[in-house]
UniProtKB/TrEMBL annotation:
Gene3D superfamilies, A to Z: 1.10.30.50
Domain HNH nuclease stretches: 400-451
Organism superkingdom: Bacteria
Organism per entry: Pedococcus aerophilus
Segments for region (Disordered): 473-493
Upper lineage: Bacteria, Bacillati, Actinomycetota, Actinomycetes, Micrococcales
Protein name in the entry: HNH nuclease domain-containing protein
Amino acid sequence: MFDSVKSVQVADPAALVGELFALSDEQIAALPVEQAEAVVLASQRVASAVVARQRSAMETVARRCDERVEQEAIDATARGLRVSRVSGLALAAGSLAALLHVSPRTMSSRVEQARRVVCALPAVHALAWAGDLEPYRVDAVAAESMAAPADRLHEFEARVLEGPVTHLPCAALRRRARRAADRCAPDAAVDLAHLFRTRADVTARPGECTEMTRIVADLPTPVAMRVYGAVDALADEYARANPGQRIGAARAEALADLVEANATISTTIELVAPVDAGHTYGPDLGVSSACLGEPGWPEEPHLSMVDQTPSLHASAESDGVHEDVGGCEELDDGVLHEHETDDRWFVSAHTEVPTVGSLLPSDVVDLLKDPDVTIRLSRSDSVTGATRWQDPTTYRPGARTARAVRSRDGTCRFPGCGTPAGRCQLDHVVRHPDGPTTVTNLQSLCATHHGFKHHAGWRVDMDERGVCTWTAPDGRTHTTSPMDRHGRSPSVA
């Protein structure tokens, strides 16, 4: 079967599956280059065919969810009840996101793409089903089809497939698809451009390693040209002044300088110290003045181990419980000395900044030494790493409780959702007044998944440590844990 690439090119992907899985790792390692290439191609053809089937299944899930929402709306109207605002697409994306361990937003885009390919581009889907068109090339055609009117997608697909496409590289296939869309509707490209202008966005996500963050900007091309031109011009100046500096590093430095020179930035850092119930807390700072180190740490007075600065807030507001103790100086090896109280803080590990990335101890030290940075201190559970705080009893959470819940959660608590907790609503796990307004009965939910809990048949339970167990309408369960401030990310099971 794998004697040559040509034999694999004409083989049925279903037949390739058995042959591929019959090979051991040792057998593959012993193959000559020609047969190894044939295995690579066979694996890709099988993967392409499998993804096509996954797209069909995604479309089926979305269609069934649409039918369910429609039927529930009819039933609710007949009974005089309020109609749920949760869409079938949102239901499908939420359910599948938990299964595939991606964010619901990402899954929503994938489901929409799958519906377009399966329903509107059947010939392209058939090529993928046969293993002849890889997922990235299918996605390129589907993306360009957005510029064609819905009632002319059949014409768009016919133009794309007027010549052979299986041999075309992705970039060439995308260009052909773009020309096909322009021919179908010359004016639609303008309308699509106006639509996507409203979707311009800047996002931040963790980079490839600790201390690196990737900022992605989707901008209108004229704006992007001006922005990049300014960055590139300043980077050229930096590169000339610093021979040997990579131009990419110079552009990053130029971008940061241009932004910081035109903005007033206020940074607040929350230091979270792991503590046990038996420790005595200081009257103002809420942290122990005794040693809080792990076994093996020297028991010196005024030594606290700070594993995390869990959040960077754009607010310098103080509520009387968290106190600004800025003005720290570095002593050595990451140990900080606070001027007035003589407290010392040891930064022992890299620090997670939810949705952005992580910091090295030296980064935290530099931030803590900055007199313009506001520092808040709070405490965390020494076992789970979740932030703890005293809870109010009123219906609406007070500022301290709200901050504690969002600090504990880090992100929306729905499985796979990465919406920052600062942009989420606070939800009573057990509805008030049956459930109290406490940290252990409150969770952060984005607006979409808040609706899931109340209108889409999902249920959630929370234990005393803040671990949430979600139950889907079909009975499947998923578990999400609080943001671990001791160095681990929120877990989803």
